[in-house]
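User: Can you predict the 3D structure for this chain?
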Amino acid sequence: MPRWKELPTELPSSEHQLLVQLRRLKDHSGLSLAALASRTSYSRSSWERYLNGKKPVPRKAVEELAQICGTEPTRLVVLYEVAERARTEEAGRPDQPTPEQDQGQDQEPEPEPEQQNEQEQQPEQEQSRAAGRASRTVPLKWTLGAVALAVVVSFGGGLLVAGAWDDGVPAEKAAKTGAVAAGTGYLRGQTYTCDVQRKDGELRAGHSATREMLLDINSTGFDVVEAQCLLREKGFGPGAFDGLYDERTKGAAKRFQGAHHLVVDGIIGPDTWRELRR
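Assistant: Here is the predicted structure, written as structure tokens:
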């Protein structure tokens, strides 16, 4: 499989993350650019431009790629929307004034005394409205930040995902101090038990039912615990069942992938999940 070109350094982080996930999805599918062109509405050259950051990828292309790879598109669409909103915000920023404009602004005549008095006596309500307009720009930035954080949490591969923020916090202390991933109950630094059973025709350890979550170095949470338990069940023990995707877990994943004729990259995705749950 050919190596990907480096993405342009000027790409916004949200756009960069979207393309990384799309590249991984394509790699896991084993499809070439020509194969993508034959199965989607976009040509080979269009896919080459999209996946190398030369041109923004359309939403329809994101959805079609997820569909032909058998992946739920929701998380990819959320990433797309964050990237699109960042592009829109960037495009809407006013141009910086040229030196000539700056010079012209410096040469504006001083206001007459009467005008100066009127400016000093501007009603407080006008000043309040101006302050209100400035403050309304803050929630949008916070909203974008919250959406981006939600996307980061939803993706396991190489991202900060559900987990306590303090490294190595004992389970008892984490429970008291609130170092628990919101809504998940996952505690950073705690070891979990593995009770692997076959249910509905597939192996489950009881921590997660995912078959699609991408896991890579520094992923954390119950999806990782599930993978660690299934790896041990298959004879490729990762050494710990703590929900942290470290080098030992990645090494176990690589050995498992090699034994099952999968792409040996240590990234657990749909193909590896399918084999783990057999």
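Confidence is low (pLDDT under 50) at residues 96-108, 113-121, 134-138, 155-183. Residues 74-91 form the longest helix (18 residues).
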